[in-house]
Amino acid sequence: MTIFSSFFTITSALSMPLSVTFVAALSIWTFPSHAESPKAQGDKQEQGKTLMITKGCSSCHQLTKLPAAKGLVGPPLDNMAAQSYIAGVLPNSRENLTQFLLDPQKFHADTAMPTPDITQQEARRLADYLWLE
After folding, report:
1. Is the N or C terminus of the chain more exposed, i.e. has fewer CB atoms within 10 Å?
2. Are 58 and 78 in contact (CB under 8 A)?
């Protein structure tokens, strides 16, 4: 049985006109319910910016989009999305950056970066903030 014959069998079993079924399926595919609004994305970015300051990241790192970040201990954090590796050892991705932020020594035993006092959600917010230029 092909995908098309399965589709037609299901639609006829549901006694719905094909056009209605197709439009419903298309709207679900085109407009996922989990998509975030621009405001929600902006709120997350603002939370990440605040975390950069309140959790002490800006005292060790530089970040052009955050003038308060003038630290000279850690590496600059500009263009994170374009970097190949995190701390020179971990392939760069948002998920890997999130995990690194939660426990830097797990991935680089000799790192000078302390383990920050942050939650998983805060680590995600920081990673999202650093990822967006």
Report:
1. N
2. no
pLDDT higher than threshold 60 for residue 97 = yes
Residue 65 CA, chain-centre distance (Å), reads: 18
pLDDT in tens, 29-87: 444 445 678 877 788 889 999 999 999 999 999 999 999 899 999 999 999 999 999 99
- 3-state SS, one letter per residue, for 22-55: HHHHHHHHHCCCCCCCHHHHHHHHHHHHHHHHHC
φ, ψ for residue 56, nearest 5 deg: 90, 5
- Count the neighbouring beta carbons within 10 Å of the beta carbon of residue 131: 18
130 versus 29: the higher-pLDDT residue is 130
